[in-house]
C-alpha cells in the first residue's frame, strides 16, 4: 500500500519502510511524527485530503544537502555574482500508513 503526503510545500509518494528526505522539521532524532495531510491512500483519492488517514514516520537525522551554486552574469558589464546555498533537510523513515 502507498500514500501521497504533502509536507514542506511538496508532495511525496511513500510506502512503508521508505526513507525520504524532506524539508527541515522541528523534531529531534528518533522522534516519531505524524503526517495528517494525506492526499491519496492506495486507490482512494481525497478532495483535497483523505479524511481520517495519516502516515507515521520516525526522524532519522537532520543534515545539509549538497551545495547549489547560484551564478548571475550580465554580459559586457563586468557584473558577476556567485552565491552558494545548502538546504537543511530531514531524513525520515515511514513506519505505518493508516486510512
TrEMBL record:
Gene Ontology BP term (one): translation
GO MF assignments: rRNA binding; structural constituent of ribosome
Xref: InterPro entries: bL21-like, bL21-like_sf, Ribosomal_bL21
Keyword line: Ribonucleoprotein, Ribosomal protein, RNA-binding, rRNA-binding
Entry GO terms, CC: cytoplasm; ribonucleoprotein complex; ribosome
Pfam family, one: Ribosomal_L21p
Record's subunit section: Part of the 50S ribosomal subunit. Contacts protein L20.
Family assignment from sequence similarity: Belongs to the bacterial ribosomal protein bL21 family.
Functional note: This protein binds to 23S rRNA in the presence of protein L20.
HAMAP family per UniProt: Ribosomal_bL21
PANTHER family: 50S RIBOSOMAL PROTEIN L21, LARGE RIBOSOMAL SUBUNIT PROTEIN BL21M
Protein name from the UniProt record: Large ribosomal subunit protein bL21
Gene responsible for this protein: rplU
Amino acid at each position: 500500500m502507498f500514500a501521497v503526503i504533502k509536507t514542506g510545500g511538496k508532495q511525496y509518494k511513500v510506502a512503508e519502510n521508505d526513507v525520504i528526505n524532506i524539508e527541515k522539521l522541528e523534531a529531534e532524532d528518533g522522534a516519531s511524527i505524524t503526517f495528517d495531510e494525506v492526499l491519496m491512500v492506495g486507490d482512494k483519492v481525497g478532495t483535497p485530503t483523505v479524511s481520517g488517514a495519516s502516515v507515521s514516520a520516525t526522524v532519522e537525522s537532520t543534515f545539509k544537502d549538497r551545495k547549489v551554486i547560484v551564478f548571475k552574469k550580465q554580459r559586457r558589464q563586468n557584473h558577476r555574482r556567485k552565491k552558494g546555498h545548502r538546504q537543511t533537510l530531514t531524513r525520515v523513515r515511514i513506519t505505518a500508513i493508516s486510512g
